[in-house]
Amino acid sequence: MNDIDSARRDYLALREHANSAQLATLDSDRAPESSYAPCVTYEGSYYLFLSRLASHTDNLMRNPEIGLMLLEDEAGAANPFARKRINLQGRAEPVARDSAQFRIVLDLFHHRFGKVMEIIEPLPDFQLFCVHPETGRFVRGFGQAYQLEGDRLDRLTHVDPGQSSEDV
Fold first, then answer.
1. What residues are paired with 32 via a beta bridge?
2. Which domains are present in the chain?
3. Angstrom distances, CA of residue 16 to CA of 39, 99, 127, 152
4. Is the pTM of this model over 0.85?
5. FRET pair for 69, CA 20 to 30 Å: which of 81, 120, 132, 156?
6. β-strand partners of 51
């Protein structure tokens, strides 16, 4: 297995097993606001089930631009400075409750998060969002940054450390 194949395996594992994402949204003054939310992935997109009582939901309803970061669990990381992470930028769009997509994705939420979904799914203030990532980067550790490419951002290209804009 070469380095790209090994990195891709780590990327796909983090993408599949991450239970939450750090969110970066823009408030009404276009100031950045960070938060987090549980998430699932389905067919190359990321899904968030958010309460309208949370400011990040208002932010996304006003401005669909979003940054997501999926981050390796700190307890399992060899070094807190080099935690594996996926950084994505894209757009979020609401998913209608009466759509087939809503039912499929909510089933994934139920499978991943269990009983809490029985409590929050019927609450009228919760909105499902589909995040369509447009660009991204996977950081595997020191000197191991990969640009994500392709329709589903599932192809990795190593970033030359001399040209990288992210500290790794």
1. 26
2. 3-158 (2.30.110.10)
3. 10, 24, 22, 13
4. yes
5. 120
6. 126
